[in-house]
Amino acid sequence: MEEIPTYSFHQTKDVMLEMVSMHLNDDDLKEKADHFIMYKVKEGFLFSELTQLHYHIDNGEKSLGMFHVSAAVEFLMLALDILDDLQDQDDTEKPWSVFPSSTSMNLSTGFLTLSMLVLKQAPYEENLKSCAFQYLYQQVLQAVKGQHQDLKHLYHTEDNFLQMIKHKSGSLMACSTLIGAVFRRTTQDELAVIQDYSENLGVTAQLANDMHGLLRMDTKNDLLQKQWTLPIMLLSKESGEQARWIQNYYEGKVDQAFMAEREESLFQWIHQSPVILYVQVLKRVYQRKTIDKMKELQVSQEWKNRMQSYIEQV
């Protein structure tokens, strides 16, 4: 197989900025939109990297149209990222958390619309774009369902939690891979395999994020911010005084100041808890499931190696 092409994220960014300039006819709105996009550039365009990689399954010919498709994926993820942060209210440093929520929500709506518009303008056959739109709608609606379930904080069993994560995070990962694969004219059987392992990759990424959110020692710590994640749910079911603190905190019986006063004892207990190792192993299990399923694709070993490298970095 030919070498798998790479794409400059700067060109994807330029497409996004051009779409903003063309379609958001207000100087203040454009300035804020550009600011949000440039912030996202610093975080990295990881979703569109997956889109590009799946377009190039045994296809070594670079396509400039991928910059439009990549821009569509990143507009979508930026819009959803804004809404997620506004709903969680746990990250006050991102630019969309600094501006009034009404302004950021309005821009999120604009980015969602630009995502669909730039995808429609991509220079590919109409039947392929139609199929890509179907996967976009399908996966985003699944993610909306998962986000709703997450916001309600209803889950108190591991199985239910993992299913919610698959809906919320796995669906968006699958959205980015399936859209790329569609333009490569991938078969339905191959798309089913891609969707399966992409959802597991989303679970892997969310578990990694949840562990980071639990163990970080700053004001954004998920526990102090009262985020209900799988590791925190498992910790609340442990025995001991610290577990009761967590239970009482989430039931509203004690406040954040109570938890902050006991921070040293609490986090020493967390680091020593078997929950930490268990979630790390669980993440690795989903990582392995992703790799094993990906290897079912009848494609070149070079592509599989590249995809496995991506998975192992999550």
Please tell me about this protein's structure.
By secondary structure, the chain is an all-alpha fold. It folds into two domains: 117 residues, Farnesyl Diphosphate Synthase; 188 residues, Farnesyl Diphosphate Synthase, CATH 1.10.600.10. The chain is 75% helix and 0% strand. The chain contains 15 helices and no strands. The longest helix is centred in the middle third of the chain and has 28 residues. It starts with 8 loop residues before the first helix and ends with a helix. The mean pLDDT is 95.
Q: What does the overall shape look like?
A: globular
Tell me the strand percentage band.
under 5%
CATH T-level fold name of the largest domain: Farnesyl Diphosphate Synthase
CATH superfamily of the largest domain: Farnesyl Diphosphate Synthase
Poorly predicted tracts of residues: none
Helix content: over 70%
CATH class of the largest domain: Mainly Alpha
Topology:
Layout: H1 9-23, H2 27-43, H3 46-55, H4 65-88, H5 95-98, H6 101-121, H7 126-151, H8 158-183, H9 188-215, H10 230-236, H11 241-250, H12 256-261, H13 263-272, H14 274-294, H15 301-312
